[in-house]
Amino acid sequence: MSDKPKAIVLLSGGLDSSTVLAIASQHYKCHAISFDYHQRAEIELVAAEAIAVSFSASHQVIRLDDGVMAGSALTDTSIAVPEAAEEGIPVTYVPARNTVFLAHALAIAEVMNSSDIFIGVNAVDYSGYPDCRPEYIEAFENMANLATRASVEGARLRIHAPLINMSKSEIIKTGVELDVNYALTVSCYQADAKARACGVCDSCRLRHEGFVAAGIADPTRYQEGVELG
Amino acid sequence: MSDKPKAIVLLSGGLDSSTVLAIASQHYKCHAISFDYHQRAEIELVAAEAIAVSFSASHQVIRLDDGVMAGSALTDTSIAVPEAAEEGIPVTYVPARNTVFLAHALAIAEVMNSSDIFIGVNAVDYSGYPDCRPEYIEAFENMANLATRASVEGARLRIHAPLINMSKSEIIKTGVELDVNYALTVSCYQADAKARACGVCDSCRLRHEGFVAAGIADPTRYQEGVELG
User: Fold this and answer.
1) Residues of A in contact with B33 (CB under 8 A)
2) Which residues pair with residue B61 across a beta bridge?
3) Which tens digits make up the pLDDT trace of A6-32?
4) Which of A63, A106, A136 is nearest residue B147 as measured by Cβ atoms?
5) CA dist., res. B80 & res. A138, Å (int)
6) Cα A95 vs. chain centroid, distance in angstroms?
7) What tens digit of pLDDT does each residue of A48-65 get?
8) Considering only CB atoms, which chain A residues are within 8 Å of B139?
9) In this predicted complex, what is the ipTM?
10) What is residue B131's DSSP assignment?
11) Contact A103/B108, CB-based, under 8 Å?
12) C-alpha to C-alpha distance for B153 and B80, rounded to whole angstroms
């Protein structure tokens, strides 16, 4: 299907972005990009590669320089990952993460002559991150359409956020229909070296509740001794 | 002067950004950031360090992953740097460069509790890059103010572009008043390993014309045999 247009898909290897890759692959030839930002759960990069392969997408891991993605429980092991939902923006928020990720996607899209970027942000069952809100995505798209040579020459870049108004169970049902193998995906903020989930962080909690609500058996591999609520 | 607020300054080591650092240093404690993006003129990073030291600014070089800043004569040695002004957007345009640079600055600003980012874009004597226009800077600022925890908590991030409406000669006059040592700066797109300028690229041309218009002797160190027009 070489006549499909090209799209850049931000792929963390988690449940949401893997579902986005499945959605995008229906109509686009996808180039998936993941980031090595010294995150605790580096194993998610292995998951991302496996998911990309399963959808015949090309895959690029971009290494960010040390200390760029700082000030978060996800990158600083001196800050504990919380085991319950927090009020306000949680300590797992990574400063400007989606802006840095989307900026790289924009650069790669322009070089690859693509006008479509996909991102798995979600404004329903999410962790309260500011850079997951619809108004943020819209503002980035607006900026991107002033930033590039392609935009000056008339191409309209689109940031697609197909999950933005979906609940976690709707996302899971969609992914199952599109043959996403969720056993390959890693959502946990502190997955171990064998890609097994902790079962207690915010991301694990939202994911497990999604499977329960969808009425689909949770295929997640958990660490030993985890008891799900 | 520890009571000055902190600012992040994008510093390439060229004439414009060095002048911006001088302007910002009047009212802010500056943290300068430069990027190693495999540019032809890597020597500009040495110039950036020297300029940062001369204004007592801290300085951080951020290395971008291979292949992120691609598709430009500034990063791809198979594309020649042109020796005359071009129609439209020149081949020295680097896809999404300022977006990637500003995204990093935003992440660092948030971690450092700074609400001020300075960039040396200029819409008068410039090379026609889309991401140097006022409407682009405004759109980035708007996006940034939806992107971060700081913005949700009420801080207003500002992208300062003090040179945006200045001619090259006005920039030079301002810098001379603020004691910028322009002999330290490197503007050339293809400076040699001794930081000597080629004298023929678009950037060299604009720079030299600026010194002539300002009535200030050009302190630029040129490669042997260069004859300036």
Assistant:
1) none
2) B34
3) 999 999 999 999 999 999 999 999 999
4) A136
5) 37
6) 16
7) 999 999 999 999 999 998
8) 139, 142-143, 146-147
9) 0.89
10) G
11) no
12) 47
